[in-house]
Amino acid sequence: MLEMKVPSPGESITEVEIAQWLVEDGDYVEKDQAIAEVDSDKATLELPAEASGIITFKAEEGDAVAVGAVVCLIDTDAKAPAGKESIETFEKVGEEKGEKNAAPEVSERQAKAENTEEKAASIATKTYASGTPSPAAKKILDEKGVDAQSVSGSGRDGRITKHDAENATPSMGSPGTGDRGSYRTKLSMLRRKVAERLVEAKNTTAMLTTFNEVDMGPIFELRKQYKEIFKEKHGVGLGFMSFFTLAVVRALEMYPSVNSMIDGKEMLTFDYKDISIAVSGPKGLMVPVMRNVENLSFRGVEAEVKRLAIRARDGQITVDEMTGGTFTISNGGVFGSMLSTPIINPPQSGILGMHNIVERPIVKDGAIVIAPIMFVALSYDHRIIDGKESVGFLVAVKEALESPIDLLMGGDVKKTLEL
């Protein structure tokens, strides 16, 4: 009998949560088959079977289990079943037999219930005319969303007339006729950790947000001209993230305090630029890190963004890939966000929020023209970043995005894009 223990998913993680068993208790599992998904406070990981055999659970879904604790047993002496098909056929036959045996009993119960309902309806029709709406009145009350019990009937024996319904007004404190159900779901360990970090960021930083707008016309023109050639040459698209990422790298060079964090009584400033990018994964928001972005080209950034996004989507992101980061870029524009105040990803001191691009009227050279405009937001820790640095940083990002050929490509587009 093999005892399967929870492996350590990363440094500083002491427990995980069984998010979902991917097999049933008592199933025969193959070696390296994924048997469970476990949540840590940083990522969701798959737990593969260490050997083949029949599995016995020692933890339930939702249980918090310490790293190194036994989560299941695998009977390695058990033989593999002859075939899944024969088992399924047997179960199907059993179900069919059960349904046939239960049919008379169900029919009899159903008949009794229908008979009882008919009797109750008959009694109600004869006895409880008071407060009962006429068909026309009922239609009006339903359209208004008014409960008949809240209306006083003026008709015979207290019956609610059409006139009563027309004069009835819905009570603001009365429930409507729609569905008022609710349900609870347990937050995953990852979601709880995200919640803790968001509250921590709000409570422990002097967070402030500054805004600006960017004319995306020049980038639109570059992408229109080179997007297909770039994709054919490099196998990745020429998206907006590479422009924004390299504009951020340039701005961080100009304003290094934005690439810093507080460490006790000191400010720790980084020479390198490890940029965290917020991506949507199956378990919620994840923030993988692109390392040493100052050394990446447009092609390098786009390839890395694609690689990390695919790993996040497939649930393959590791703790190491989400650890660290000196600055974060969050793109709410892909979901249609017009403007937001992004929350700092601690212990970082700054986060840039991208938003959707909308054609707006702006003034150029004294004339009103229509241009694709994006609002951008920089949230920063005012304890170490002053207004001058924060506004200057965002203006530097804006300048680079509005003059990408001169400020991001050194005047040579084809060489920069490696075409």
Give an account of the 3D structure:
Helix content is 36%, strand content 24%. It is an alpha+beta fold. The strands form four sheets. Strands 9, 12, 13, 14, 15, 16, 17 and 18 form an eight-stranded mixed beta sheet that branches. The two termini are 59 Å apart.
Gist of the model:
The chain is about 35% helix and about 25% strand. By secondary structure, it is an alpha+beta fold.
Strand content: 15-25%
Secondary structure tally: strands: 18
Biggest sheet details: 8 strands, mixed
Q: What general outline do the C-alpha atoms trace?
A: extended
What CATH architecture of the largest domain would you give? 2-Layer Sandwich
**Which structural class fits the helix and strand makeup?**
alpha+beta
